[in-house]
Design brief:
The chain is an alpha/beta fold and 350 residues long. It folds into two domains: 165 residues, Glycogen Phosphorylase B (Rossmann fold, 3-Layer(aba) Sandwich), CATH 3.40.50.2000; 160 residues, Glycogen Phosphorylase B (Rossmann fold), CATH 3.40.50.2000. The chain is built from 15 helices and 13 strands. The strands form two sheets. It has a seven-stranded parallel β-sheet with strand order 3-2-1-4-5-6-7.
Length: 350
């Protein structure tokens, strides 16, 4: 089995992490020959990493290479559909939610045509297929659309679980600084709570990529309140999980997500969750008051109230944490890899 994979990014993000884990599985466990089409920048920065997991990075792909199929990773790379159309069976794996549609600068009919050129569309949730992208794929046969939920590895046994509350309440947020992630909402809520409690919040994720999208007054939060707001920057996955395991509350105030991994990882590590109330969470299984607390996007007062409620109510924390853990273990990494692989094999002729 020989396949080709293409994507724009191998950086520290969920889409890249899932793709690399899948390619490692195909290469090392199934013995597939996996080639990754990369630009010069990604070849220099990630070529050795790809080679270490059994993937051959290439800068030019020959359509005569007898690939069984091509996997395009993320909506951002959808234009590759034009290159492979009619030549190689092609799948597009969509990791995005609403924001990506708003950023598309072309006419909607262009998207309809691009989606029509793909042999298989892989979504992470029914919400993506039925709500976000429905206007562009309504005409496609059902067999060309698949839902493959994400999966997460169980925590490394060497990562210690937090056993009890610490004197300082530790909140954590994971994700690159971005307007759609709304980290500054959490920053303001934490600052307000710090006037009454010993509390701080750590933000783990790239701080540079989207900084120009914020105002000067917003960027001041990156330097002000250093005793309360800890902007840690990007970390490798193991260090991120270690920091998460030692936190008291995980908070995700985003205005748009598709199927984030971090809440599942938090639940596996028994860290209670506060999530913005986004429609896709319902399909995953996050239920307010059952396995998490939710608040309306952008409502800082209710975000603050949810955090304070978790701080003060130990029985609620225990209830939410136990139920969240039960949900999280249903999204195993092994099941995800199996589902994704069997879905892509639809493209291979018997």
């Amino acid at each position: 089995m020989k396949i080709l994979v293409t994507t724009h990014s191998y950086e520290l993000n969920g889409a890249a992490a899932l793709l690399k884990s899948a390619m490692r599985y195909w290469s090392q466990s199934l013995g597939w020959e996996v080639e990754a089409l990369v630009n010069e920048k990604n070849l220099i920065e990630h070529g050795d990493e790809l080679a270490s997991i059994g993937v051959k990075p290439i800068t030019t792909a020959s359509l005569k290479s007898n690939y069984q199929f091509v996997l395009i990773n993320t909506f951002i790379d959808i234009e590759y559909a034009n290159i492979f159309f009619g030549k190689i069976p092609t799948a597009l794996w969509l990791h995005e939610g609403v924001s990506i549609i708003h950023q598309f600068s072309g006419h909607p009919v262009e998207l309809i045509k691009l989606f029509s050129k793909l042999n298989l569309l892989i979504f992470q949730t029914n919400w993506q297929a039925n709500d976000v992208f429905r206007s562009f794929i309504y005409h496609l046969p059902k067999e060309r659309i698949a839902i493959v939920p994400n999966g997460v590895d169980l925590p490394n046994p060497e990562i210690g679980f937090k056993k009890a509350l610490s004197p300082v309440q530790k909140i954590i947020n994971i994700g690159a600084l971005s307007p759609r992630k709304r980290q500054f909402d959490l920053a303001i809520a934490t600052i307000n709570l710090s006037k009454k409690y010993s509390i701080h919040c750590s933000f783990i994720g790239d701080l540079i990529q989207h900084q120009d999208l914020f105002s000067e007054s917003e960027r001041q939060y990156l330097t002000d309140y250093p005793d309360v707001l800890h902007w840690e920057g990007a970390m490798d996955h193991e260090s991120t999980m270690q920091a998460l395991s030692q936190s008291d509350i995980f908070c995700f105030p985003s205005s748009d997500e598709s199927f984030p991994l971090a809440p599942i990882e938090a639940a596996l590590l028994n860290v209670p969750l506060v999530l913005s109330d986004l429609p896709m969470y319902d399909g995953i299984g996050w239920v307010d008051g059952i396995n998490c607390l939710k608040f309306p996007v952008g409502n800082i007062a209710l975000l603050e109230a949810a955090i304070e409620r978790l701080m003060l109510d130990l029985s609620l924390r225990q209830h939410l944490t136990a139920n969240a853990h039960k949900l999280a273990i249903t999204f195993s990494h092994e099941k995800f890899l199996s589902n994704l692989t069997h879905t892509l094999l639809r493209l291979v002729k018997p």
